[in-house]
Design brief:
The protein has about 110 residues and is α/β, with parallel strands linked by helices. Helices cover about 35% and strands about 40% of the residues. It folds into 2 domains: about 1-40, no CATH class; about 40-113, Vaccinia Virus protein VP39 (Rossmann fold, 3-Layer(aba) Sandwich), CATH 3.40.50.150. The chain has 5 helices and 6 strands, in the order βαβαβααβαββ. The longest helix has 13 residues, at about 5-20.
Length: about 110
């Protein structure tokens, strides 16, 4: 399952899933607390490609939605924002598994202990 706060993006994601015969559903929703998303938790993987401020805000929700040993892949942030993200996630029981840099951009792969 996936979410997007932009209704057309959720619709297009569903169209692309159908074209690619992917067995998934995307919802226009404001995060993991939406009942359609929460009912499937806990997850093995949460992937979030959003800005740093929402990543920080959603840290407790992402932690709560993941199984122990689950992975969070966080992208859409700048290298200069990594420390801010880690300050939000490490105290929630995450460890860094991988950091990927591309130009000024960063992606973090974190595992929930």
């Amino acid at each position: 399952v996936g979410t997007d706060i932009d209704e057309p993006s959720a619709r297009i994601a569903n169209e692309n899933a159908a074209i690619n015969d992917a067995k998934c559903e995307f919802y226009f929703a404001d995060g993991l607390s939406d009942a359609r998303i929460a009912q499937h938790a806990p997850y093995d993987l949460v992937f979030a490609n959003i800005l740093a401020a929402p990543l920080v805000f959603l840290a407790p929700e992402i932690a709560g939605a993941l199984k122990p040993g689950g992975v969070a892949i966080l992208s859409g942030l700048l290298r200069t924002q990594e420390e801010r993200i880690l300050e939000a996630y490490l105290p929630l029981g995450f460890v860094v598994e991988q950091t990927i840099h591309h130009d000024a951009w960063s992606a973090l792969q974190l595992r929930k202990k």
